[in-house]
Design brief:
Elements (H helix, E strand, L loop, with lengths): L17 E13 L3 E8 L2 E8 L5 H6 L8 E10 L7 E12 L17 H6 L1 H4 L3 H23 L3 E2 L5 E2 L11 E4 L2 E5 L4 H9 L4 E9 L12 E10 L5 H21 L1 H6 L12 E4 H10 L12 H10 L4 E4 L21 E5 L2 E8 L4 H10 L8 H5 L8 E7 H9 L20
Parallel strand pairs: 3-5, 6-10, 12-13
Antiparallel strand pairs: 1-2, 1-4, 2-3, 4-5, 7-9, 8-9, 10-11, 11-16, 13-14, 14-15, 15-16
Helix pairs in contact: 4-6
Bound molecules: aspartyl-adenosine-5'-monophosphate (AMO).
Length: 431
Amino acid sequence: MLKDAYTADVTPERDGEEVRLAGWVHEVRDLGGIKFVLLRDRTGIVQLTLPRQKVPKETFEKVPKLTKESVIRVEGIVQANKKAPRGVEIIPRRIEVLSKSNTHLPLDPTGKVDADLDTRLDARVLDLRREEPQAIFKIRNVVTSAIREFLEELGFIEVHTPKIIASATEGGTELFPVVYFERDAYLAQSPQLYKQMLMAAGFERVYEIGPIFRAEEHNTRRHLNEAISVDIEMSFIESEEDVMRVLEKLLAHIFRKVREECERELKVLNQELPELEVPFERITYEEALNLLSDHGIEVEWGEDLPTEAERKLGEIFEEPFFITEWPKEIRPFYTMAKDDEVTTAFDLMYKGLELASGAQREHRYDMLVRQIEEQGLNPADFKYYLESFKYGMPPHGGWGLGLERTLMTITDAENIREVTLFPRDRKRLHP
Ligand code: AMO
């Protein structure tokens, strides 16, 4: 390795020790007889101090030629110094330039010069060097680890289902067509049909953390055209309550893990995470409409909740909550109905965002075919899916949780693009 320590490992207690560090030139300050370089790596920043008398001439003379954001490697001695940032500095013996940066930067990664989101996303690689995005993506990693840990403890196994598919699952309008040899194919909007087929295959409990593709035409702050969804499917449930309980406990577990493991990152983002108490409150769709009406927002029965309504509910409920018993006409064909009007479908809401939706599924073949037809779809298009219901399909249910939306609530990001490395939206296919 070219280095044996991170900048965060350099502490006053290591006074006198020799270290080898490497990273980016954050800043250079040249005061003539004494020069300073701030060296940044993924753990933070340390000051290199070069008094003319104390460092080799060749090293001293290299400093004025260092360009910001160049990658350098440093060998030097740790020196405790109360006046230095964090009370410690490095007196370098050797500085080696591993990769010189152009002097004209499209974006200032020190964050001192404000840039709008579009400029930042255009120069995303430089933007990601900033402390805040670094914190966000470390948290994102802790979140996915927490999900795997929690679900596997409950006996779920991770699966990977196809992302090139032949038929729509969440309604036909949001599909991305792809050229698949001589046939029509699409990018998967959801692992829905496959996770259900795995219930017929006897897996009983599966989860997937994978991409979903939605040809949403509108640019909003909470939609992407490619997002990551955390999906589960679970057999032998008595009702949708069984999968809702998994979901609420998972969210509480995620928050706990991030609180425990991301103290530094939360501080960088200026966030404090609450302890989420389970069970979350549950209100029916009808109760939600009444509540909204009391607050001056009228939504007609059978309509999806508009953004404004979701936001209002986010003001009324401080904690995450479920909306249950959604009307039949606005839920997908695979949802099990409760009666002629409402279904077992639920949404998990928090901070004005829909984080997840799920339901118990219709596992009875004849009923399922009827529901496909009622939605104006052709059962023949679902031949292989439907086949799996003919030879023993247990009662089952599940949900899909948006990973980016979950991260928005944890990091308080105003825009979903902030929590996505290289977001895909209507206008953005690069970088
Ligand atoms: P749904 O379509 O509600 O349900 O998607 C599940 C969750 O995925 C997230 N999500 C998105 N995030 C960002 N950008 C998007 N364009 C986007 N679309 C969806 C949301 C949403 O709550 N098959 C069902 C799930 C199930 O019943 O198991 C489904 O896909 O957080």
